[in-house]
Amino acid sequence: MQRKIMSRSAYIFMICCIAAIGGFLFGFDSGVINGTVDGLQAAFGSDSVGTGFNVASMLLGCAVGAFFAGRLADRFGRRTLLIVAAVFFLVSAWGSGIAAGSLEFVIYRVLGGMAVGAASVMTPAYISEVAPAAYRGRLATIQQVAIISGLFVAFLSNYVLAHLSGSAMVELWLGFATWRWMFWIELLPAAVFLVALLFIPESPRYLISSGKPGEARRVLGLVMPEGEVSAKLTEIDATLSRDHKPRLRDVLDRATGKVHGIVWVGIGLAVFQQLVGINVVFYYGAVLWQSVGFSEGDALLINVISGAVSIGACLLAIALIDKIGRKPLLWAGSVGMALTLASMAYAFSTASLVDGSLRLGDDMGVFALLSANAYVFFFNVSWGPVMWVMLGEMFPNQMRGSGLAIAGLFQWLANFGITMTFPIMLASIGLAGAYGFYALCAVVSVFFVLRLVRETRGKELEEMAYE
């Protein structure tokens, strides 16, 4: 009996890890751009606005991918959409590296963005729907560990490739510039993801909503004790509407015609995760540190260090999320981010102009680095993993796909807005002003969590309410 329980737990862990490879690619695709900005600018001759759009263009695809993946997954299945995303990752990785101009590059990055958007909502949904409530938070947090691992590997591979060639802008192998190889590295994990997805089952909750109770029973038998399967089938079925399959209109209250309150909370969680500015660090980290006096090599190494800190924070989140809950991690993370972002804003406010470029004093350079890594730590022990965990589990079964679609759309639109406006803010109000704004958003997020977010720790998905 004990062996059977351990075997079941190992199987659940395995399929969750396979699904989370989508998170790894999400992170890699998001982070790889960090080391290629100078190469893109030189290759395509783009100005600051054009470079900003080249960097941010993926996020438009993410918004589209997140929105339509949630809806299409209700029709075709979570696993099916993850397979489509894997194909898009492969196409985007190859095309981004081979692109000869900005338009071609943007097209491939948008395709990659659609894959990232789909993976960002489907991976937590899939994990939440196959994981037991007792440790669903820990398993769902694997998604964030995978995202940060993807970022870390992207930063590390960028650093190694640039070190081998001397710069992202010069030729590395076979006559191609280093920045192109930075994109092509992604082909390997994308291929692994595609093949591995063929060996995991479909979500049992999707199977029940699609009128396939026999297949759902088989999958539930793989992830829970056989004696509990019939009761769980009945419980899941009771949470689904008898007159129609899940659809977008399920986010509206039939009685009032208004959007259910839980959807607004999901949107708030998704938007605040971006308003604190974390992806400025991930997308523009190399540019940011070079702008205050660090060399390209040192800036890329700082990214690697930040990636390692992020992984450590996510592992701590795994240890805490099912013990102390989601809500305490969120508000504590908001407080920590507000303080560390304010510290970064102060450090950057002391920078002086030297030969037309900003320079931090030695002491303030160290202070800014420590503050930045503390900020990355607070984000990745709280809002980084917890937002995705909550979006994957907080919506009732009938509207999980639609709720995730809408929240995912807003998350990526906010991401696009923050990413696109950072170069503009950098030119107009400087680093201190930009990070001051992100600190203010972190302060507001504290009150949002305390007033509106409800704890979901230990609850079955069938217990999730509409309000």
Task: Give a written overview of the molecule.
This protein is mostly helical. It contains 19 helices and four strands. It has helices spanning about 1-30, 35-45, 50-75, 80-100, 100-130, 135-165, 180-185, 185-195, 205-210, 215-225, 225-240, 260-275, 280-290, 295-325, 325-350, 360-380, 385-395, 400-430, 430-450; strands at about 170-175, 175, 350-355, 355-360. A two-stranded antiparallel sheet has the order 1-2.
**Overall spatial form:** globular
Low-confidence segments, given as residue ranges, are 1-6
- pLDDT averaged over residues: 78
Beta-strand content = under 5%
Number of helices: 19
The secondary-structure element order is HHHHHHEEHHHHHHHHHEEHHHH
Rg calc: 22 Å
Write down how many β-strands occur, each being a DSSP E stretch of 2 or more residues. 4
User: What is the CA–CA distance across the termini?
Assistant: 40 Å
The level of helicity is over 70%
**How would you sum up the major sheet?**
2 strands, antiparallel
Strand order of the largest sheet: 1-2
Class from helix and strand fractions: mainly alpha
Pfam families: Sugar_tr
Keywords: Cell membrane, Membrane, Transmembrane, Transmembrane helix, Transport
Subcellular location: Cell membrane
InterPro entries: MFS_dom, MFS_sugar_transport-like, MFS_Sugar_Transporter, MFS_trans_sf, Sugar/inositol_transpt, Sugar_transporter_CS, XylE-like
